[in-house]
Structures are given as structure tokens and as C-alpha cells.
Amino acid sequence: MRSLWLPVLALAALTSACASVETPEPVVTAAAAPSAPAPVAGYDWHYTPDEGMARLAYGVEASDDLRLGLDCTAGSGKVDLTALGQTGDREIHLESGGDTERFPAEGEPSQLHDGDILTATAATSEPVLQRFRRVGWIAQWIDGKREVYAPHPGSEAGGERFFVMCG
């Protein structure tokens, strides 16, 4: 009887080994965050604290070439935005890491660039600003075109210092 079971077990093992094998489902993990945009040569974020005020500006250091400026009074929880726009624009459209927001703005003709200089006020708690705080970059949409403002290595810490000061 013992000799009969051994071939049956062997046949069962062989049959199961030859059965069609299903490919296991891939393990699904959280999608990796998209990589940060590359910084632009000559442009960077510059953090400047000054007697209860702070400025975080994206542009060329020590020049009037400003793309986006954020200013605040310490602990205010508010940010004054300054950006370039097309003539007649009356909103600042920002995006960071998938969050987007349009801020109603006032505008006046720029003396240095084509278009208008736009100004608006926003709470530091706005989702697009909080995402900027986390990911380190922000983009502005101007006339349907996206301009990304990414930090160079070493300047990322200025953004966090700015938000800590502003509240």
C-alpha cells in the first residue's frame, strides 16, 4: 500500500507544478512624488529677513530682475505677492506640486519689463503656498505659459525660514 501512495503523491506534485501559473499581481505602492524641476541658471530664491519683516524673492541676486516676490510681517500669517504679468492681467496664478490657486491682483505698468507688475495678498495657509513650503518650488502661469521657480542646492532652507517667520 505504501508503494501505491508514493506515485500518487509524485503525480499530484507534478500535476500542480505543471498547472498554469498565474503571474502574481504587482505590489502597488504609493506613487513616487514627481521629481523637482531643475533650477534655472542665474535665477534662485533669496531670503532676506529685516527687522520683523521677511522677503523671499525669486530672481537674479542684487538686481531688479524679479519673477516672484513674497513679503510678510513676522507672525502675520499673510504674504504680499509681487509678480510679473501680461498687460491687463489682474490675477496671479500659482501652482506647486499639483495645487493651484488664482489670487485677484492689482496691476500697474512695469518700468523694467513688458507687461504689468501684479500685487496680491494671500494667507500663508493657502494650499498652494503650503505645498511650495514642502516641495521647495512653485510655478506661475503667465498668458498660458508655465514658469517654474526652483531653488538651487543650498537655497531651499530660505523658504522654510520665510514661512516660520511669517507664521
Give an account of the 3D structure.
- With 167 residues, this protein is an alpha+beta fold.
- It has one domain (44-166): Sandwich (Immunoglobulin-like), CATH 2.60.40.
- It has helices at residues 2-18, 127-135, 157-166; strands at 44-50, 53-59, 66-73, 78-85, 91-96, 99-104, 106-109, 116-123, 138-142, 145-149.
- The strands form 2 sheets. It has a 6-stranded antiparallel sheet with strand order 1-2-3-4-8-7, covered by helices on one side. A 4-stranded antiparallel sheet has the order 6-5-9-10.
- A hairpin with a 6-residue loop joins strand 2 (53-59) and strand 3.
- The longest helix is centred in the first third of the chain and has 17 residues, at 2-18.
Identify the CATH architecture.
Sandwich
The biggest sheet, with number of strands, parallel, antiparallel or mixed sense and barrel status, is:
6 strands, antiparallel
Q: What's the order of the H and E elements?
A: HEEEEEEEEHEEH
For the largest sheet, list the strands in their spatial order: 1-2-3-4-8-7
Low-confidence stretches: 1-33
Structural class: alpha+beta
CATH topology: the name is Immunoglobulin-like
Global shape: globular
Number of domains: 1
* Range of strand content: 35-45%
**pLDDT averaged over residues:** 84
CATH class, anyone? Answer: Mainly Beta
Helix content class: 10-25%
The end-to-end span amounts to 83 Å
Q: List the total number of helices.
A: 3
Rg on CA atoms, Å: 28 Å
Number of distinct beta strands: 10
